[in-house]
Amino acid sequence: MRLAVIPGDGIGPEVVAEALKVLGEVVPTAETTNYDLGAARWHSTGELLPESVLGELRQHDAILLGAVGDPTVPSGILERGLLLRLRFELDHHVNLRPARLYPGVRGPLADSSEIDMVVVREGTEGPYAGNGGLLRKDTEHEIATEVSVNTAFGVRRVVTDAFNRAEARPRKHLTLLHKTNVLEYAGSLWSRIVEEVSLEHPEVTVAYSHVDAAMIHLVTDPSRFDVVVTDNLFGDIVTDLSAAVTGGIGLAASGNLDITRRNPSMFEPVHGSAPDIAGQGLADPTAAVLSVSLLLDHLGQKESARRIEASVAFDLATRDQASPGATHAIGDRLAALVSSNVRPVTQ
Amino acid sequence: MRLAVIPGDGIGPEVVAEALKVLGEVVPTAETTNYDLGAARWHSTGELLPESVLGELRQHDAILLGAVGDPTVPSGILERGLLLRLRFELDHHVNLRPARLYPGVRGPLADSSEIDMVVVREGTEGPYAGNGGLLRKDTEHEIATEVSVNTAFGVRRVVTDAFNRAEARPRKHLTLLHKTNVLEYAGSLWSRIVEEVSLEHPEVTVAYSHVDAAMIHLVTDPSRFDVVVTDNLFGDIVTDLSAAVTGGIGLAASGNLDITRRNPSMFEPVHGSAPDIAGQGLADPTAAVLSVSLLLDHLGQKESARRIEASVAFDLATRDQASPGATHAIGDRLAALVSSNVRPVTQ
Ligand SMILES: CC(C)[C@H](C(=O)O)[C@@H](O)C(=O)O
Ligand SMILES: CC(C)[C@H](C(=O)O)[C@@H](O)C(=O)O
Fold first, then answer.
1. Mean pLDDT, to the nearest integer, of A67-95?
2. Closest alpha carbon to A227 in A121, A103, A321, A317
3. A179 an active-site residue?
C-alpha cells in the first residue's frame, strides 16, 4: 500500500501522526510519502498544488490529509487552489461523510436517540463548479452570478453509489435531500435519477426531504436518516450539522472518493487546522483515525477498517470525556486497542 | 388598517382566525378581506394568483397568510406559482425571521442558553431567481443549471436593513452568512457590500461565518448570533434550523417585507398547512399571532406589536407545555392577555 500523506497546517501533522501510528498496527508494510502542501508552502513559494506534485500524488493508492489552512492565508486561496482542486483533478465524485453518535459521546441534543447515518455528497459539480462571474464590478449595477451545474452523468454516479451503500446497510433506506420546490431544473434531474436508479434497487426504501426541512429533522428526529444523497453545496451544509449532532467535527471523518479507482481517493478529518491549539497536544486525533478506517474500507481491507472503527468506538465509550488525554496518548490507546484486536462493542 | 387575509389550506384558516382575534384586541377597526388562494382554488379553477387578485392585494396595507399546500398538489406548483410569485411581484426583498427561545419553551438542545436572534434573509434574488434550465432532457447527456443572481442593488438594500436592525438592538451585532471560500463571485459581492455599509454603522460589530460552520454554531453556541444577514437560499436553510432550536416552526413567525412600502408586506407563520391535523383544533396559532406582531411592527404600531409579543411570551412561560390547549383556547388566552395589557415578562 502506497500512501501519499499531506499533513498540512496547524494540528494537521499532529493528528496525522497518530492516524499513521494506528494504520501501522494493521498495515505494517504501508509505505508513506509526505507532501508539504498547505499554508506554509504557499507562504514560502507561492505554490498551492504544482503539476509535478499532482502527478506524484496520482501514483499512490490513497491520500491521507490532516488539515490545511491558516488565518494568514486569505480565505478561498487554499480551499479553491488546493482542497477543491484535488477533488476536481482526482475526480472525487463521492464525498462520503458518515455521522454516527457513538455510545459515550454526548452530542448537543437533549434527546440522544440513535444516530447512524452516512451522507453521500456529490463532490465534483453543483455550485462548486466554479462557474459564475462578476459584471460591472464595483459599480451600483454590479451583478454576481454562481451557476450550479448538474449533469446526468455526475448525478447518476453518486446516486448509484448511494443506493449501493444503502443496500449494504441493515436499514436499506435512502433519502434524497434537495430543494426541488424551488430549484426546479436541478431538482427535476436529481429526482428523476433517484427514481430511475431506485428501480434497480427494489429493496431500498426511498424518501425525499427538502434541505430546509432536513435541518429540523436533524435536530429533532435524526434517527430517521440512514443513507442521505445530496448535491455538493447541500452536502457541505448538512454534513456540518450531522457532524455537530454526533459530537462535533472533532470526531467526523470523510472520504473523497473516485469510485472508479482511476485516481487515488483522499481521506481527511472534517475539522480544520485549528491553529489556536496547534502544537500543544490538545487535538483529538479520533477523526483522523476514523478517516484511516474509511481509507482501508475503500481499499477493500474491510476487516481492518472495522477493527479500527471498533477500537474508536470502544475508546469513546470508555474514555474520560472531560479529559480524553493528549493527542499522542489517544493515538497510543487506539493503536493498542487495534493491535489487541479488541472485541467490537458496537456491532 | 386594510388587511388582505389569505387563510389558505389545512390549518391555515384555523390559525389565522386566532391571529385575527388577537389583532382585534389591539386594532378593533382593522378591515379584513379574505382571498381564497391556495390548493383548494387551484383544484377547482386551476388558478394560482390571478392578476385581478394581485391587483386587489396591492390595495391593502399588509397581507396575512395562514399556510398553503396540500399533498394532492404536485410539489412546486403552489410554492412557485403563489408563495414565491407573491414575494417577487410585491418585491418582498427582506424576509425577516426572528428566532427567540422564549422562557418555558424547551428546544431540542441540551444546553438551552439564551437564543435571541433575527435572520434577515434576502427575498427576491439568489438561487430563487428561477434562472436556469435543462439541456438534453432525458438523455445521458442532460445538464441542469441553476443560476444564483446577486445584484449590488438587491444585496445592498437587504444588508442596509440588517444593519439598521442591528443598530436598534442592544447587542448591535451583525453576522454575514455565506460561503465566500467557494462561491467567490457572490461571496465577493456580499462581503464588499457588508464592509461598505458597515462604515455607516460604526457601532455595529460585524462577524462573518461560512454557512456550513453556522450549522455547528447554531446547535452548540447559538447565543453568538444577534442579527444574521444572508442570501435567499442560505436564509431558507438557516431559518429552519434557527426555528428548530428555538422550539420549532410551530412557534416561528416571518415577515416578507417591502421596506420601501411601495407594496404591502406579507406576514406568515413559517409552518406549513399540516393537513394531517387540520380541522381538529390541534394547531398552535402562536406563530400566526407572532406574525401579527411583526405586521404591526412593520406598520409602525410598535407598542401594539410589543404587547402581543409580551402576551405570547407570558403564555409560553405559563402554559402547560404538554397540552397547551386547543387552537381556539390558545387564541382566547392570547386575546385576553393582550386586552388585559399584560405586564411584559420578557423585556
Ligand atoms: C474548506 C471547504 C472548501 C470545504 C467545502 O466547502 O467542501 C469544507 O467546508 C468541507 O466541507 O470539506
Ligand atoms: C415553501 C418554500 C418555497 C419556502 C422557501 O423556500 O422560501 C419556504 O421553505 C420558506 O422558507 O418560506
1. 96
2. A121
3. yes
Q: How many domains does chain B have?
A: 2
List of chain A residues whose C-beta atoms are within 8 Å of the C-beta of residue B221? none
Q: What is the mean pLDDT of residues B41-46?
A: 96
State pLDDT tens for residues B99-148: 999 999 999 999 878 999 999 999 999 999 999 999 999 999 999 999 99
Contact B215 A237 (CB under 8 A): yes
Ligand 2 proximal residues by C-beta, below 6 Å: A 181-182, 212; B 79, 83-84, 236
Structural domain boundaries, residue B157: 108-245
For residues B115 and B84, state if they share a domain: no
Residue B179 maps to a domain: yes
- Point out which residues pair with B266 in neighbouring strands: B63, B256
User: What pLDDT does residue B249 have?
Assistant: 86
Among B245, B270, B293, the domain-final residue is B245
Quote the pTM value. Answer: 0.96
pLDDT at A134 over 90: yes
Indicate the pairing of strand A126-135 with strand A31-34: unpaired
Check if the beta carbon of residue B190 is closer than 8 Å to that of residue B233. no
Whether residues B112 and B77 fall in one domain: no
Residues B112 and B30 placed together within one structural domain of the fold = no
Q: Is A24's pLDDT higher than 60?
A: yes
- Residue of A9, A21, A116, A128 marked active site: A128
Q: Give me the pLDDT at residue A250, please.
A: 86
Q: Are residues B196 and B305 in the same domain?
A: no
CA dist., res. A245 & res. B112, Å (int)? 15
Half-sphere exposure of B273 (CA within 13 A, CB side): 23
Question: Which of B68, B75, B79, B271 to probe ligand 2 with, by most ligand atoms within 8 A of CB?
Answer: B79
A327-339 helix and A286-298 helix, angle to the nearest 10 degrees: 40
N-to-C CA span, chain A: 27
Name the residue with the closest Cα to ligand 1, atom 9.
A236
Annotated binding-site residue? A347:
no
